[in-house]
Amino acid sequence: MLRGKKIIVGVTGSIAAYKAAVLVRSLVKEGAEVRVVMTPLGRQFITPLTMATLSKHPILVDFFNPENGEWNSHVALGEWADAFLIAPATANTLAKMATGVADNLLLTTYLSARCPVFVAPAMDLDMFAHVTTQQNLARLRTNGVRIIEPEEGELASGLSGKGRMAEPETIVEYLRVFFAKKKSLSGRKFLVTAGATIEAIDPVRFISNHSSGKMGYAVAAELVARGAEVVLLSGRTSLPVPGGVRLVETLSADAMCRAALAEWPAVDGAVMCAAVADYTPVECSPIKLKKDEGELCIPLKRTVDIAAELGRSKEGRILVGFALETDHEQEHAEQKLLRKNLDFIVLNSLRDAGACFGGDTNKITLIDRKGQTEFPLESKQRVAERIVDRIVELLQ
Ligand code: CTP
Fold first, then answer.
1. Of all residues in the chain, what percent carry a pLDDT higher than 70?
2. Within 10 Å of residue 145's Cβ, how many Cβ atoms?
3. All structural domains of the chain
4. Ligand 1, atom 14: nearest CA belongs to which residue?
């Protein structure tokens, strides 16, 4: 799976840099073409000679060769690669990547790279658990960087916990799986709904909900990563648009419904992640409502159930829905599966810690007509992979 793949391996200043030698050797053995970029501190942990010998190419550290002034083009390197793997990735490099600092060749290459980027963090357990590191990782995840989670175990400090860089064979396997899946949906087209709809009361106020859109955006990015064409109908979010998707802003339930019905005939399937308002004001006041004494009643009317509407005209298309529940989770999800004519439904419960609004993790159960599969608490990126894996299975 890695034969002929062009991979940049970035090495930063961590004691785990010694594992990068084994990693590069394994990638080359798998048939990949490897170029190594090191940070100045990374160079202190493992010699350029070792890395150059294993990768069969000179390693790159500086912006230019001080002896002859030859420029090391990070742009050309970023364009050349099929994947950029930073292993080990220190807390410092992750922080710089998350904020766009570009003070070494590895970082400018990251900013220029058009290919998928993978990081294998390596640091002490407290550094890894620190809220700042976790925020940086969350930001990178949102920007499409794939995190190869560190493992639990003994650390260089003598302490034990999560922070040890994933073993080289785990990283190689991660890349193998990534490239195997990459083209599994090429030629397919999907519709994804995401985010919260907003239902206007007047020009200033609206009814909405807490959905951040993260799950839907992760699903859209994952479908693109597998080669699908994706149209993303998005309610209100503050997320960057994943590369390669066609975004249609559909702020209200009505706008989302009209766009979904228009796109549906041309797609192979839809993943309905949006938190669509079930009710909308009967009328939107054209002017700002003024307060008065006493209570205010705003008459609401039902919106169209978009998923159910698509479910009425499936004709071989795949339809996936979500159920976010607070009670009788299983029962409610099964009812929605049937009522909306879904192929499967992704259940998450607000009772599960870590599955709250706006977070970067989710805990799901996939339910179809044959049964259910429960998954542990995982990153939304991993959850998106699980959902898309199931779609690929259904298409086979
Ligand atoms: N959904 C939709 N259009 C709506 C309401 C919901 O497409 N007007 C989709 C959601 O995107 C989700 C699924 O239906 O995939 C379930 O949404 P949810 O709000 O949990 O269910 P409802 O059918 O609205 O049921 P209830 O509010 O009674 O739980």
1. 100
2. 21
3. 6-181 (3.40.50.1950), 189-395 (3.40.50.10300)
4. 307
